[in-house]
Amino acid sequence: MAERVTTKLKLSGFTAVIEPDRWTPGSFTLIVDGTPQSHVNLDDPGQLFFEYVQRIGHIIDQLRMPGEPITAVHLGAGALTLPRYVEATRPGSRQQVIELESDLVDFVREHLPLQRQASIRIRYGDAREVLGRLPAGLRGEADLVVVDVFSGARTPAHVTSLEFYTEAVALLKPDGVIAVNAADGPGLAFARSQAATLLSATGDVAILADSQILKGKRFGNVVLVASKTALPLDWMPRLLAGGPHPAKVVAGAELRNWIAGAPITLDATAIPSPPPLRSIFQVGTRGD
């Protein structure tokens, strides 16, 4: 594919665009409702572009032995960047992807086809509703759950609550990991509340982000990683060294101080993530 292609999503009404990356041959960006959502290198699916996706990639690299297949559940498909990454770096992995917009997946698979050998099952529907319909044999068997659910530029409220995370965490093995992408701005009230909520649903939480984001200097993505058992702290130097820089990992007592006073989000109090200024993430769709 060499040209820009577009489609109108039936459910949300958003415009989805796939356009070539002019700087990296074989790479493409998926833009939904004017917001860049995913970046894929078809020639090298093991290459990750967006900063927060790189950080999740580093977490995946630390799971099990290098190259060992894992069982993964992805809530939110985008351009299937992380399922492609898992297949490229851990061939033979068993993966489930949940996505609300079936025509988005059709659009992506038509123009950015998956690796032929990939064992990736895609289930359509609301992430929270489909969680409850996953095979019983998957509960307690996932090495990794990724939560990266967006409607346009915002995370819907119903996938930010304690009730939601409790259900998602139930999929994990005792030492499995859940990774959550939270987008937030100065003050980080949403990210702090998400960390408090995830901590209540698990046993241990750490966060990874650009240092300037954690200082409240700008809007951006905070990656939360959690497990039902203690996270192995020997991950941390490797996660930092892997870039992108400047980076910081907050864990242990520092994490608890960071979230001090932040409320746990319940279904009854949940709200969507804050919207970014249009000038931060959004790009034009040229009238399509």
List the helices and strands and how they pair.
Blueprint: E1 5-8, E2 15-20, E3 27-32, E4 35-41, H1 51-62, E5 71-75, H2 81-89, E6 94-99, H3 102-111, E7 119-124, H4 127-131, E8 142-147, H5 162-169, E9 172-184, H6 189-201, E10 204-210, H7 211-214, E11 220-227, H8 235-241, E12 247-250, H9 252-259, H10 278-281
Structure description:
With 288 residues, this protein is α/β, with parallel strands linked by helices. The protein has one domain: Rossmann fold, CATH 3.40.50. It is 28% helix and 27% strand. The protein is built from ten helices and twelve strands. The chain has helices at residues 51-62, 81-89, 102-111, 127-131, 162-169, 189-201, 211-214, 235-241, 252-259, 278-281, and strands at residues 5-8, 15-20, 27-32, 35-41, 71-75, 94-99, 119-124, 142-147, 172-184, 204-210, 220-227, 247-250. The strands form two sheets. The protein has an eight-stranded mixed sheet, sandwiched between helices. The protein has a four-stranded antiparallel sheet with strand order 1-2-3-4, with helices on one face. The longest helix is centred in the last third of the chain and has 13 residues, at 189-201. It starts with a strand and ends in a 7-residue tail after the last helix.
